[in-house]
Amino acid sequence: MSVDIKLLESLELFGDLGSEPLARFADCMNRVKVTEGEKLTQMGNFAGAFFVILKGNFMVYFQNDRALTLHEQGEVMGWSTLMTPFQYVGTALALSEGDVLRLEGSDFLDIIRQDAGVGDKIMKKLNQTISKRTALLRMP
Amino acid sequence: MQSLALYGLEAIKANNGWAISALGISIVFTGLTLLSLSISQIHKILDFWENRDGFFDRIKAARKNGKKTFPPPSAEFKSLDTTRTAVEYKLLTNRIGVPFSLPRLLKMAKKSGLYKPHLSINELLKAGLIAPDGDGFFYWNE
């Protein structure tokens, strides 16, 4: 477990958090290889982990059959780990082989609860992603 | 003159009654056994009826694979021709309509037994042949 802090610094989500919170995130994260067709999240299931894309191509789709595809480093999947009722609202599927950073939801919540400033920064950055995906989710 | 009328067990014996009874019992017992076996298998028939589309799709896919329509599993994906892949996937989207749902297209591709459907769709996306419409659906960008 644990990943390189420099790798986290290079990601927009963690870029300006400061060395101490970054070290905590780095300790809790692990780099995971994914294979084509692998599901990282499943809609309706308990949201247990948050993912940041390092490499690869992914599709997130919702119950209404709408979907978006993610291809860039730093894009995230599994934001439901931070919000009640802690249940994934979409299914994230790997369209190709890739690498992701995996962070357990409980660790993520612990870190942002310990430091409100960190939580605030993270949530501000995630806000746009959450809004965009929630909008898709609410479409008929 | 002595009467030939027989009654009771003697009459049964004289007219093969025991054999006929045994035959009758065997026929009824066999019938009931067959009936209970049929009832016990009804769930399989119902399952088949409910999933008949998937069954026929699997047969079609197996036939296609038998004809070697697709490259062997060991072949590298890059050997696939994107243009040919696009033609195959357009046939599927013709059935869904445009704009189409990407997860639905993927599901149909899997059912049809197309080769490496996730990678194929990814290639079509990366090649810009499939593009998002901004509302969660996709269209052919040509």
Proportion of beta-strand residues of chain B: under 5%
Large-scale geometry of chain A? globular
Distance between the termini of chain B: 111 Å
Count all strands of chain B and give the number: 2
Description:
The complex is a heterodimer of chains A (140) and B (142). With 140 residues, chain A is an alpha+beta fold. Chain A is built from four helices and eight strands; from the N terminus they run ααββββββββαα. In chain A, the strands form two sheets. Chain A has a four-stranded antiparallel beta sheet with strand order 1-8-3-6. Chain A is globular. Chain B is mostly helical. Chain B has two domains: 1-70, no CATH class; 77-140. Chain B is built from seven helices and two strands. Chain B has helices at residues 8-14, 17-40, 42-50, 52-66, 82-96, 102-111, 117-126, and strands spanning 130-132, 138-140. In chain B, helix 5 crosses helix 6 (102-111) and helix 5 (82-96) crosses helix 7 (117-126). Residues 68-77 of chain B have low confidence and may be disordered. Chain A binds chain B through residues 36-37, 57, 59, 61-62, 64-69, 71, 91, 93-96, 136, 139, and chain B through 101-104, 106, 116, 118-119, 121-122, 125-126, 132, 135-138.
Topology:
The complex is a heterodimer of chains A (140) and B (142).
Chain A lengths: L4 H5 L9 H10 E6 L4 E3 L7 E7 L2 E4 L5 E4 L5 E2 L13 E4 L3 E7 H10 L1 H23 L2
Antiparallel strand pairs in A: 1-8, 2-7, 3-6, 3-8, 4-5, 4-7
Chain B lengths: L7 H7 L2 H24 L1 H9 L1 H15 L15 H15 L5 H10 L5 H10 L3 E3 L5 E3 L2
Antiparallel strand pairs in B: 1-2
Helix pairs in contact in B: 5-6, 5-7
